[in-house]
Amino acid sequence: MQIDSHQHFWRLERGDYGWLTPALAAIHRDFGPDDLAPILARHEIAKTILVQAAPTVAESEFMLALAERTPFVAGVVGWVDFTAPDAPDVIARLAANRLLVGLRPMVHDIADPKWLLRPDLAPAVAAMVAHDLVFDALVRPRHLSALRAFIERFPSLAVVVDHGAKPEIASRVEASWRTDLRAIAANNHVVCKLSGLITEAAPDWRPDHVLPYIDRLLQLFGPGRLLWGSDWPVVNLAGGYDVWWALTSEALQDLTHEQRAAILGGNAARVYLGRSRGVA
Q: From CA 122, how far away is CA 129, in angstroms rounded?
């Protein structure tokens, strides 16, 4: 079963997508299940993981309600304020819906690069572990040293690194990203999403600009710890779903059938849906 491990829906009238401005013309409109369904059918993708796009609990509730009536959505990665005193209670309430499979603070938009080191995150993390939820790490290269410490501090927390940690492909700055991500990949319980890379490339990107980064992620995490995701509809800013699918298909062509199947669905099923609260 092929699974898109990272996609979004949004409804602009909800008003909590602060980053989604008219300047992003290609994606500044509503996107819902009816928009994605034909694309999934074209690529024979059976299920998706729906990921938060706004830093509000209200959006998490919106996504869970949408997922309940969308058969192809197998799980939701939501949001809570990890530093709020009532975070454990909010997590428990959201986790009562078994479609919730993870949570994602929008670390890449937080000014403090050491936010992940805050001691007051511990109660929220403990609640995540108690409810068997996955932590999606939306980070940039400057956050990787803090993410490494965070992972070591909470070894029982399942962690997924989103978008390969957003390497600076446009400026070809790779060395520190590669070094820091190697240290994180040394933790065998950490996995990484093969997603979001072409939107980090220059507007005139070519496949040879991006393929080395895919190869590097394969070297660091191996086929057993990479999860393919589209980052749709954000991917429309850099070519679209079909372009990203074609590029990753090229990058994975020398792998075995079993290895490709793991990246394109098996790993996501294990990480998000194979847990004690996962949805079959």
A: 11
Q: Model pTM?
A: 0.96
Classify 195 as helix, strand or coil: coil
**Alpha carbons 78 and 102: distance in angstroms, whole number:** 6
Q: Which residue, among 147, 134, 140, has the nearest Cα to 275 in the 3D structure?
A: 134
Residue 139 CA: distances (Å) to CA of 66, 161, 225, 248? 26, 8, 18, 21
Could you identify the residue written with the tokens 């949805």? Answer: 279
Architecture of domain 3-273: Alpha-Beta Barrel (3.20)
Strands 158-161 and 3-7: unpaired
Rg of the chain taking only CA atoms, in angstroms: 17
Would you mind telling me the total number of residues written for the chain in this entry?
Answer: 280
Tens-digit pLDDT profile for residues 42-56: 999 999 999 999 999
Q: Are 180 and 149 in contact (CB under 8 A)?
A: no
CA 41 to CA 50: how far, in whole Å?
17
In angstroms, the CA 172 to CA 185 distance is 21
Give the closest residue to 115 by CA, choosing from 135, 77, 144.
Answer: 144
**pLDDT tens for residues 141-195?**
999 999 999 999 999 999 999 999 999 999 887 778 999 999 999 999 999 999 9
Block residue for tokens 């975070």: 87
